[in-house]
Amino acid sequence: MWNQSDQETKRSSPLRPRTRNELVGEFSMKRLTSRPSGHWCWTFGLAFAFLGFSACRKSTPVDEVSIGESGVALQAREVPAIELAWPQWRGPDMDGRAGDATPPTTWDQSTNIAWQADIPGRGHSSPIVIGDQVVLGTADDAKQQQMLVSYDLGSGQEKWRRVIHEGNFPSAREVHHKATNANGTPASDGRLIVTAFLNQERIFVTAVDLNGEVVWQTDVGAFASKFGYAPSPVLYQSFVILAADSFGGGYLVALDLETGEIAWRRSRGDASSYSSPMIASVGGMDQLLISGGDRVASYDPATGEPRWESSAIAEATCGTIVTSGDRIFASGGYPDKQTACFSATGEELWSDRTALYEPSMVTNGTSLFGVTDNGVAMCWSNEDGRVQWKERLGSNFSGSPVLAGGNVYVSDLSGNHYVFSASGDDYQLISKNRLGSDCYASPAVLADSLLLRIGFGEGGSRKERLVKITQRP
Q1: Domain count, the chain
Q2: What's the EC number here (predicted)?
Q3: Could you say which of 148, 243, 314, 337 would form a disulfide bridge with 333 (CB–CB 3.0 to 4.6 Å)?
């Protein structure tokens, strides 16, 4: 269980974000030399990458900030004026569950396709849905541009495109070959859209309005990149919270959604990890939960103060925690492998040596579902961790599953899209659909539709498209 260690030096820090006027000139910055893209997590057969790494470790000490020091108070969030069907990574509750949605279970290039839209550049950012628009992050390596792009939900027509950064990308050796420079998924409260990018060796959080105009941008801290930056922001009342775990000095940080001011920043040690935090009410209190750094940890999302830690999982993880009732589920990673269940206070209730490294899991309340990176679909009992079934699907997986209409939807890296029953009895394949060449991102789910970011083609001819899948007459 938790044993807090204070390894970082608390220092004063400039908290004020840059305003719209101060940012006007920053979106036509000089271009630098382009470089090959890569992916935010890696296949850890390359364990030798750790050898000799300590000789070139870059220290980026964390300036911790408390709520008392910042003076930024948490406020209740106003009810949005527009529908937020899928407003952030893994949906409204960041758990991959889509309520009563019943999207199609079969599709291909000529079946149940409402529209397809070209995506500039490359990214693993999943789409979000805000009212009548679909928004995602992407990066054009040739132009060295990191951007947000909005599409019309009904037609797929591009509504706007906002370049957030131009130039100053990480070097090729600082991003894994499978990674991209736009891995995190944006988040929206219905008024602003917030995204985070690694640029200039730092993490910048940027908010734009629903027309793509920049409202504020804040440099939240340095980031020593080992294989790139992956986490997505999560919204909590008037705060936007994100993680930046790196070998130089990792941290969690919360910003005021309206102004971009830093409310709190909490050091998390010096392990490079890639998981997004999530927030759930567990044990009668809101808990900010994250894995990585050889632990599962809980924080108070209002203040950043630690609640508990449990030694578990692995140094590096990518998946996002999921919860059900008062149970917390996590999986990963490298170099250790573990899937485990914890109580609301961090007690380990059961453990399995199976690891889902890149994909997250999803639960229907009684069973826990996931697909390993090398293509084995798994189902555990939430209660005791008993493996209820497992089935080899083949190929490799990076994207995370979603649960909709009593089915699990998940895509592999070879253009196959699986739908199987969310049943604890046995593996029941509903359909195996073929579209595109790969799918690194995770679906957004609407009442009767899916939105998928899919790669088409190979090598230099590969292009990405946003595809809306809807039941057609």
Answers
A1: 1
A2: 2.7.1.-
A3: 314
